[in-house]
Amino acid sequence: MRQFDLAPLYRNTVGFDRLFSMLDQMVGVDAAPSYPPYNIERTGENAYRISIAVAGFTDRDLTVEVKENTLSVRGERKPSEERKVDVLHQGIAARSFDRRFQLADGVQVVGAALENGLLHLDLVRETPEAKKPKLIPISTNAAQTIEAQKAA
């Protein structure tokens, strides 16, 4: 029997933890593009951080956009006219990229910072008030409960 790896789905989504745990036993998907490399970390109960390795890119070369439930990070390095050199060996990748992440409902991007060649994107999962659990008081007298509902 053929084994499937859902690791690419884990890497490209944030906030779907339980969904992909269930799908992990089912059908798999081909490997996602690997450039640029990145980490997804859980920094709190409802907080996440995506760190993308963007060595050689400046904040002017990067674009971060959220549209609907898709987070897009684009990098396009613009040639520098002030520094003309002949590159004898280029081991540092400077190619353009477009990395997309599917965000779960309620996940918001709250910040972005570029430091030491890493672009850090901070995300928070906010549960709407209507979806939060609420306690229902239990009455021992059904007549009192009906009266209280009519009064409200």
TrEMBL record:
Alphabetical list of InterPro entries matching this protein: A-crystallin/Hsp20_dom (IPR002068), ACD_IbpA/B (IPR037913), HSP20-like_chaperone (IPR008978)
Keyword Cell membrane: no
A Pfam family: HSP20
Domain (SHSP) ranges: 29-141
Keywords, sorted A to Z: Stress response
Domain of life: Bacteria
Family: Belongs to the small heat shock protein (HSP20) family.
Protein's recorded name: Hsp20 family protein
